[in-house]
Amino acid sequence: MRNHDALTLPSLAGARAVGAGDMQREVRLAHVVDVPETPRWVTPGTFLLTTGLSWPHTGAALSAFGHDLAACDPAAVVLAVPHFFATFPPEVAAPLAARGIPTLELPYDVPFAQVVQEVHGHILREQADVLRRSERIHRALTRAALGGSVTDVAQTLADGLGCAAVVCSAAGTPLTPGPAPDAGEVLAALARPGTGPRSLAGGTLVPVVLRGAREGGVWVAGGGGRERPDGAPDDLAVRAAEHAATVVGLLLLAQRDAEVREARLGYAFVDTLLEGRFTGDPTAQERAARLGFDPDGEYAVGLLVLRDTLPLSPEGFAGRERAAQELRGVLSSLGASPLVSVNLNTVWFLLPASVPAARLWARLGWQESATAAGGMVYSRTRAGADALAQGRAEALSLAAYARPGMLRSYAEVLVPRALSGDRDAQTDLTRGLLGPLRDVRGADGLVATIRTLSETGFSQVDTAARLGIHANTLRYRMERIEALTGRPLGQPDTRALWWLALQLDALTG
């Protein structure tokens, strides 16, 4: 209740304002004080009714009394006249007016009991109205929670209060549409101690607290109820915003738990694929479709190796989850299903053939950084679910080559591994080049051709002479070799690779 509301009451219809005062000041109670030491019985927000019986009558004493009374910060002072005073003493009115406290004269025959009853009745009706509106908003917010969307909660709150309402993230950015305060101001307000409401940008911000951590806030603009003159948040806005913050917290908690469950289901499914245990039965097919995996598609197996050492600390586990979440987001942004799993200090994932590894790596933003969270390696692309176990083995063999800030492919590391004596790498190198030639018709001629080319330094004249074939036949065989292996023979690195593969093949021969 405000002073201007009090003056609309029947008992105060004959009241006359003496000096300037703030009619927006809040009235918390009406009280009759006609005993000595009047200021002792006055509290802030009191609508003070008095006959002036105990007031002093000399100018200096009245002025001192006025200053003492103003320091009590009453909502207004009403003096019954004429009786003990013919009019409101200016010595008392002046210090009250200086504090913005209205001074009123009321006809002496108006019963104070009627004024007190009407003021308190109005206050009780306002409080009951706040409770009714709060209950309606409470029920509406509870129903909105069933929709599972913080946007629904913010809209319901805005409709109930008749003003803008926004849900903000822990970073201060708005999660729902509508006018919102500056993110930096929200962040600073959330950082203040305590979990209670705080004034912000002409409105009220209530923190959303989950497990002791602030996960954002609910902000309502001014106008959701009556504005308190002391700058304190409006009761209705606070009640509604606090309930909305609780609902938002529960929604965020449910979403987080759902994300954890979905991630764990995804982890288990990806682990099944990488371990070669995909059965292809209807249940497995349905699960694959739900998670976005194509059993007949072409995938490379990727591996993020984090820089955190084993055993992982709590911070290391949190960092691994952040890396997995970031990777899921990047895969989704590139139009790929986020098929991800975690193990120890690594994050496994399936990379569709349609998504270049370099593009994913660039989106991840870990490249060439001394402080990167880790490095990335990936296998060759293969078709079918059955080939993923082989891709996992390839990626795992590259783990030692994963350096923070660096991207490495299986083909890129194959030669160094082969030169270091890795038998698997040597077998893969020779099989990758000679295998395609030996699997087609005319294999002996193609293998003899590439061996002779390597021995003659890729001289076509010498090779044709040694093999006793026409130059056109040699060119035809060279074109077939290039088509089958995908490597142009004119490039120096391809020739060096062929020389190494043939030397290894002769040793294992």
UniProtKB/TrEMBL annotation:
Signal peptide (from-to): none
Residues covered by the CdaR GGDEF-like domain: 280-397
InterPro entries linked to this entry: CdaR-like_regulators, CdaR_GGDEF, PucR_C-HTH_dom, PucR_C-HTH_sf, PucR_dom
Purine catabolism PurC-like domain boundaries: 5-123
Domain PucR C-terminal helix-turn-helix: 446-503
Family: Belongs to the CdaR family.
Name of the protein: PucR family transcriptional regulator
